[in-house]
């Protein structure tokens, strides 16, 4: 199959003929090519989205009409979900079973169905007489042309997180997937057309970071939504400042998982390893910092090592595989570099800490002990299957250590004490706090960060609200 850009309802190559190679990171083989969109493609995509927005071919449809088209898209994706899962697994190196049955394709379909139904439940917040002789109406309107820029760790899911709320709000959307994982996103254009989405409303540009920079600098774009690294978030904010675009940033994380002495240690260890190693730890909400009460430290370390042994590395298409490859050689080397530097700084490797001898870009699930709170491995996002373990004496100390990072995306607490759980859910400075679990998300609940993990929410009705602007209409009576 030939993968092409999707501009104004048609598939096309990049105007300048540029391409990107797609590598299967589980084998290291080049498996495909896609267009690398350049300046002309960016201009055409934005101009078609602008035209579609201005003539109201999408925003003036009734919510019911918009919902029906988005729901049809979800049905069409579901009918081809095995194909989506296979391509996604080839592009990312993650286990096919995880992609086809878990957090990737089925969850993305559910998200799109949620956004379809939420389209019909948007309301202006007030209509009343606040000034004598005048009636005020508050209208929620789509903000315009919205660019969505996605990362490589959940490529299709992130594509839906970008286009779902934008289209539900009535915006016209341009999606740029990550350069390494573009193929499932590129399938969406033809599916949207088959579902009845008018031409120009959704445009999809595979491309490198330069394509992203061209999109974010363009004056006809009203909003940029990025899921990606803090570095890219800062670059996009600076670029967006020149044309005063609104920005919506879902960035990195460094989630603490706190285990108290009243917790079920075995359950906590199992949840911690799932939270830390699923998707090879390439998850912004991954449990990366395990904080354990000192009285149960030894027992918990044993349970964590035992649970880590269950994480079998293997080919993405083997049924027993729990951990696939990293996304790329460079990500594998980045992870290895973090672990080497941690060891030089005094950390102890309890399990893992090596590159398995096999083709592809794998890294063994790794537990590190004897790490200092201010060390690189505790403070910086690694984005690989590496967890640190630290002990604490008091609740206050646990809270201070948990909050002492620049990130604020996700966190969790394992305890049977309801008062402690409520205190921590209030005082942890993270966008999500799980009690006695780590990782699950739902379409209806908002996902997004505090501090340098960004701002704005993905998922839920709050995500749609981020793509809406409020207009005040004041009527003289
Ligand atoms: P990245 O920042 O390198 O790239 C993300 C996207 O931004 C890609 O499509 C890339 O081409 C584009 N891009 C890069 N530079 C750009 C620029 N100057 N202008 C415009 N676009 C540009 O991130 P990544 O390595 O693909 O993904 C991993 C990161 O994503 C991690 O930091 C992770 O924590 C984060 N992430 C966050 C969430 C969340 O919900 N908060 C979810 C998943 C991933």
Feature tags:
single chain, alpha/beta, 6-stranded mixed β-sheet, globular, aminobutyraldehyde dehydrogenase (NAD+) activity
Which secondary structure elements does this structure contain, and how are they paired or packed?
Blueprint: E1 5-7, E2 10-12, E3 19-24, E4 29-35, H1 39-54, H2 63-79, H3 81-92, H4 96-101, H5 105-118, E5 127-131, E6 134-142, E7 145-149, H6 155-169, E8 172-176, H7 183-186, H8 188-195, E9 202-204, H9 209-217, E10 223-227, H10 230-241, E11 246-250, E12 255-259, H11 265-277, E13 287-293, H12 297-309, H13 329-344, E14 348-351, E15 366-369, H14 376-379, E16 386-392, H15 395-403, E17 407-408, E18 410-414, H16 418-427, E19 432-435, E20 450-451, E21 454-455, H17 460-466, E22 468-476
Parallel strand pairs: 7-8, 7-10, 8-9, 10-11, 12-13, 12-18, 13-16, 15-16, 18-19
Antiparallel strand pairs: 1-2, 3-4, 5-6, 6-22, 11-21, 14-15, 17-20
Helix pairs in contact: 2-5, 2-8, 5-6, 6-17, 11-12
Bound molecules: nicotinamide-adenine-dinucleotide.
Structure description:
The chain is of the alpha/beta class and about 475 residues long. The chain is about 40% helix and about 20% strand. The protein is built from 17 helices and 22 strands. The strands form 6 sheets. It has a 7-stranded mixed β-sheet with strand order 14-15-16-13-12-18-19, sandwiched between helices. Strands 9-8-7-10-11-21 form a 6-stranded mixed β-sheet, sandwiched between helices. Helix 6 (about 155-170) links the parallel strand 7 and strand 8 (about 170-175). It is globular and about 70 Å long. The mean pLDDT is about 95. The site of nicotinamide-adenine-dinucleotide has 31 residues, from helix 9, strand 10 and helix 10.
